Records
---
Amino acid sequence: MSLLVQKFGGTSVATIDHITNVARRIKKSRADGNDVVVVVSAMGKETDRLVGLIEEVDVRTSPDIRRETDVLLSTGEQVTISLLSMTLMKLDVPARSFTGGQVRILTDGQHTRARIESIDTDRMRATLAEGKVVVVAGFQGVDAEGDITTFGRGGSDTTAVALAAVLEADECQIYTDVEGVFTTDPRVVEEARCLDEITFEEMLELASLGSRVLHTRAVEFASKYQVPLRVLSSFGESDGTLIAGEDRISMEQPLISGIAFTADEAKLTVRGVRDVPGIASKILVPISEAAIEVDMIVQNVSADQSTDFTFTVSRGDYEQARSILEGVAGDIGAAEVSGDNKIAKLSIVGVGMRSHAGVASKMFRVLADESINIQMISTSEIKISVVFDEKYLELAARALHTAFGLAETQ
Ligand code: ADP
Ligand code: ASP
Ligand code: MG
């Protein structure tokens, strides 16, 4: 008998009809001879609704507020586990629901972005041994004090992969509202093509660079513990996309596998900084002390020995980062602080890039032909990211998708 972990995202459990569809799928997997552990998200846009309520309260973020945020956001998934378990029982499938705390998903104490430290499998194994489907709330755990924690938006994927890893499941299946992992977001570029397979390494880049189809931490876990991971549609019948190690991927590697983008970024520049040792840390230490994550960093020295120091942060952190920098700028004698929160970051990703020169120049030429001005560039062995005005995002994604031949089967 195989063990499957199946995760169903928000759209897949948006209504009781949808939950019934999910329950039928689970029933079929069991009839095919599998034990099933299910992970679910909150129904539809419930988490967004809850976030909206916090915005209405209009309170400044602090560790205490983040603790309360987790108490609130975790309620969404708790609704789904009970409704799905009831629906399974109605279809004569024995089932039992568990919150993250009930299966002892223990995390650190970083509210709203907690990391899983351990999971106790005893209760899940005992429930499976009783012939029941185990239904676990995604996105949540508890810290050492027993306080509820959550893993960051999209974190139910991470619950699923972590459970698959500790239970040594045969496959972790992420059911969502598209057929699998596409060459780029199919809601933005119509010609996007569903991939049969992709490596962990490429998927990790795509996820961390903005493709929200999988939570980054989920891909990290799957790669670390070699969990076979599949993304597929909860509405269709296709095999979706297999995400696995390079050794298990059969096809010849294309130059570029996919394009990821995000308009959730902002750029900050400190101008006219003296070019002396220690400046970068004077600028960035106060930012990291405020728990603001910095993404791309560019520093350039001009002929007069002054430098401009530019970096990007999440758009939600823009105002706070800007006010911190205004304080720092005075201390280090910088000329001015400027910023732009209307930028987008787009990245092309592919392990095939390793063995090919000229990918960057082709990317820049395509953007130039569309008159898109690149503001920042960063590269790694298997990706090239650029930042530009967010109004060009769709145009750039489409042009690059075509130029790199992603629509054609490779
Ligand atoms: P779920 O609620 O099931 O977790 P998400 O909304 O988190 O679903 O993720 C699925 C969405 O990810 C798709 O609807 C699609 O718009 C978006 N997406 C972005 N990039 C990609 C990609 N490369 N392949 C597939 N989907 C993508
Ligand atoms: N419900 C959470 C969210 O919307 C977690 C998830 O769906 O993965 O972010
Ligand atoms: Mg998701």
Note: The two ends are 36 Å apart (CA to CA).
---
Amino acid sequence: MATQALLKQLYETPEKDLLHRIRQLKTKLSDQVLILGHHYQREEVFAFADVTGDSLKLSQEAARTDAPYVIFCGVHFMAETADILTGDDQAVILPDPDAGCSMADMADDEQIQRCWRELTEVLDPDAFVTPVTYINSTASLKAFCGEHGGIVCTSSNASKVLAWSWKQREKILFFPDQHLGENTAFAMGLEHDDMAIWDPHQPLGGLSADEIRRARILLWKGFCSVHQLFKVEHVHAMRRKHPDIRILAHPECSREVCQEADFVGSTEAIIRFVRHAEPGSKFAIATELNLVNRLRLQYPEKPIWFLSPTICMCSTMFRTDPQHLCAALESIAANSNEHHQVTVPEPQKSWAKVALERMLALN
Ligand code: 13P
Ligand code: SF4
């Protein structure tokens, strides 16, 4: 059955039957399919993941598995990464092809090429600048990094990656997330004057030649719209209400929020922090709602608040629902090739792999 018709039928199926069907298909395909689930996935999907994790853990898992099919319950850049790291005989499936990442869309190949070209007006970037892309980026940007002596980072290894990058060349061009780059550089002891923000919509990033020469890191002006909703006023309000609260923030949050937080880390690191805390510890967490709600249920003895008074949810992560997961499994079971396979073309794939493998070698 064609995907759209199948999805229509699955949306009309009672939830209990739908979940039962997914369980049946998982059992039937257990030696063929590995389901990877990011921590921001909704509960009904997350429950079916064979492995759950942050971007680093899930990419390591993709590099390790020999399952013929990997279903990635996450967003597009994660599935692309998995395709780059798996063999040619393995298929990576993104259940809903529209599950993208708005931050990853904030830097494209054309803009990065232009930036590199414009930098030559000031210095030779291939001699002086290591390009570093956050894993939340398209495969073409990873390939650019591979080809230009650069590397990929995730939120859990950014400081290791920056340290490596400064060993290669004196400056870093960090894209597409200004905040991860900025928060990591500050945590590593850099000062405000060591950084400059590159605005891709301005000639020469809106910077003077002197500002570029002075900077040790050029930060692409991109952001995660979900994490920008957390404000420093929310931190202050929480601390006024609960003086003993600990604030945990994802490094995609603004500098102001991270500076005031007690702990800054990836989704996996935030989970670990809560897990190891004493019962009775109180937390306010600045990251996506599905993860915070899950932690709240898992650790009722550790009161947990969502840092923002408004809901901050990643709408693209939310696109993957049990119906799309079931449709992907049905297609594999029927050998019908109706699933949404993510395939990174060559030579992009090989160059992106170079940049990813440089990162994986550091962990
Ligand atoms: P993690 O790698 O920390 O899970 O972050 C992924 C992400 O997209 C956060 O917005
Ligand atoms: Fe992208 Fe932000 Fe969603 Fe993470 S939370 S996938 S960075 S839009």
Note: Residues 348-362 form the longest helix (15 residues).
---
Amino acid sequence: MSKRALLQYLELIQESGIDHVFTPAPVSAEDKIKQLAALREENLNCTKCPLAEGRIELVFGSGNPDAKAMLIGEAPGDNENKTGLPFVGAAGQLLDKMLAAINLTRDEIYIANIVKCRPPENRNPAPEEKIACLPILLEQIKIIRPKIFLIMGLVAAQTLFAKNENLGWFRTNRPDLMGTPTYVTYHPAALIRNQNWKRPAWEDLQEFQKTYESL
Ligand code: URA
């Protein structure tokens, strides 16, 4: 939400007779680290969905727990399952280049996926797998309190917005996620498959960067 929109919203609340609004108390980076570690620990041996059967490592998420930006992908692949880290395969290498192009490194952002365990043969996660896993992501968002989201790919966008639109719709309509500015762009794995999408992805990243740097 922009500062202007927030001010208008607060004025509206005041005009309707409410003179107190409660905002969550600030949380230190150290506390966020502790809360994320506890959440990871709680879910290391999760068996809430069949993806647990193929799990070598839970791919919880990584990066700066106090990040301004949170990047959300779809699901771990083979390399991620082996290392426990998100986006470490070919798509991850391209992601690093995409981030570098907008002056960001992994240490500045937090990266997580919709599901934390690898779907067999890298198929899309099934609805019941996403439903089982989403509470972890929501808790991560609650702890990190990002000021902006970058959503990688259609599966993540459709899941987070619970909307069956196509990628173009999300890229151009740019709905907020939980009142937070959100940019949706192509998944790096899709960009590896289709070079023609690199130009529009670059345009999305530049828009994201403008907002990120203004926050
Ligand atoms: N693709 C994703 O969406 N996430 C990863 O962690 C790796 C590949």
Note: The chain has one domain: 3-214.
---
Amino acid sequence: MTDENLATSASRTRTHPRRTDALSALMTEDWAATQPDWGFNRDAIELAAVRRRELAAQFPDTVLIIPSGSAKVRSNDVTYVFRPHTGFAHLTGLGVRSDPDSALVLAGGEAVLFQREPMGPGTEAFYLDGAGEYWTGRRPSMAELQTALNVPVRPIEGLVEYLTGVGRSVQVVPNVAPAVDRLLAAGAVNVDEAGSDALATALDEMRLTKTLWEVGEMQKAVDVSIRGFADVVQALPKAVSVSRGERVVEWAFLGRARIEANDIGYGSTAAAGENATTLHWDACDGLVRANDLVLLDAGAELETLYTADITRTMPVSGRFSDVQRLVYQAVLDAADAAIAAAVVGRPFQDPHDAAVTVLAERLEEWGILPVTAAESLSDDGQQHRRWMPHATSHHLGLDVHDCAGSRPENYRGATIRPNMVFTVEPGLYFQADDLSVPAEFRGIGVRIEDDIVATEDGPVNLSAGLPRTIAEIEEWMHPLLERGRALLSTATA
Ligand code: GLY
Ligand code: MN
Ligand code: MN
């Protein structure tokens, strides 16, 4: 187990000042002991302890390793901001306080967190290593982390020795941390591959229902996002005034997410006009024209890493045109039908079926479907998917597409259970060159996405506070656009 086995982070390859005895003597002494508030989330940590016990009970007689992941290289010696593996976050409660190259180990009733020793004041790595705390800021000591988690915290270099001592079959979440995989391989640890896949599945399936605390976190993420959407409307006059107006939309939301939360939970789609018909429009560099619709799919992510996932499609002018109104209302009716079907005890697919039924009927009514709605909805039809190609719902939580590794029978084939949280996001997308639709429909893309929690008392829309109906949207936008115009004229005066 050499340091090369652990060296994944690009920062560790950076060259920093040459060591001298004189500098070392000066740099390793006279640093005050600091006791900052590290921002650990007590609720998240306590909940994680409960989950660890649940998971360990599913895998008796094995040792489970859940790595936090490695710093990912963007290019050369530049890494992305570290984001821990979701299973690690779920089972530690550390959220953004997680470090790369850590591994949570569960052996029966015992949990141990292995991680890199902090390169703090008093160590030479403090200033000689690019990841040292002189460069990157102070981190909690292992003792502080141990106290916060109430779990033993040990140096990652001791992982193999610990596993050898426990002497049980080892399962490690695959494809998360090359550094940990290399460490296990170098230590000749025998990893149970099939069991490891089962562990990855179990981690995702554990999150299929949320606790009330988690739902509360998601409500907070939604509430920040709602304020972000208002910022976007206020920024629309500026968006219209520049050549890459979609960037203004993207930036306005990002600003709110970064200021009030941790970040965005996924790359936003900010798409005006015909760009809204491209599902994965991530360039976000197009024009925003006064008569366009603008589609924003964006969600704020908290420090606990719970995220929102919301889409609204809004008229840049503040008023929908007749054809925009027609398409928007169809999608809204589909969304309402889907939410009404998000009922405990019904199949998870029911909201999707309800949404596409409404959309197929509307496409038939408009003369766009080449067959009847019923024919299109049949298994061997499906022509409506030319204009509504995606699923209506996915689970939401720590990941935007939460629980994606669940077995199909526990996800799309499952029954809706209380405290499942999922999106409802129907859309209609008429691409600009789609000759199969009347000319006035071409270039219109509409999606409405809300975050729903299923309860015994019926579906609750966490994002209901963000206007959805045509009248609500127009009324909500009016003063925000006024303010945006006033700000723009002050800025350009
Ligand atoms: N924002 C990605 C999605 O809606 O699924
Ligand atoms: Mn979504
Ligand atoms: Mn979305």
Note: The radius of gyration is 26 Å.
